[in-house]
């Protein structure tokens, strides 16, 4: 497996553990709809959140969250719309980012709630 895939999988696992500690229930991992993949779908009380996980070894080229573009956002919105409708859910939907910088010495995790409001 390519090193970046391993880093991504490790980042997703770190994000799951982090979110669980914060009181979120993990509903899905790597949920797919058409061309979209939602890394993690979580729920806390009446809020359903699609969580995009971005993991990097440094922020030399920018923060992890800077690597999400409008096309990705559009795909995530469509996917979550399908998720909510197909399950007949009555919840508030939010889009979060868990940005992780992990190198040999440290791991930094930042949870950005309602992250797409900032794009």
Automatic annotation (TrEMBL):
One of its GO terms (molecular function) is nucleic acid binding. Belongs to the UPF0102 family. The lineage of its organism: Bacteria, Pseudomonadati, Bacteroidota, Flavobacteriia, Flavobacteriales. This is UPF0102 protein SAMN06265371_102194. Transmembrane segments: none annotated. The keyword Ribosomal protein does not apply. Keywords: Endonuclease, Hydrolase, Nuclease. Coiled coil: none annotated. It holds the Pfam family UPF0102.
């Amino acid at each position: 497996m390519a090193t970046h895939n391993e880093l991504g999988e490790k980042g997703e696992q770190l994000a799951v553990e982090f979110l669980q500690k914060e009181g979120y229930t993990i509903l899905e991992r790597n949920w797919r709809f058409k061309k979209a993949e939602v890394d993690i779908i979580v729920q806390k009380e009446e809020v359903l959140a699609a969580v995009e996980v971005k993991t990097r070894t440094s922020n030399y080229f920018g923060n992890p969250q800077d690597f999400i573009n409008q096309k990705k956002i559009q795909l995530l919105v469509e996917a979550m719309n399908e998720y909510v409708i197909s399950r007949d859910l009555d919840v508030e939907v939010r889009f979060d980012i868990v940005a992780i910088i992990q190198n040999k010495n440290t791991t930094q995790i930042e949870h950005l709630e309602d992250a797409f409001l900032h794009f």
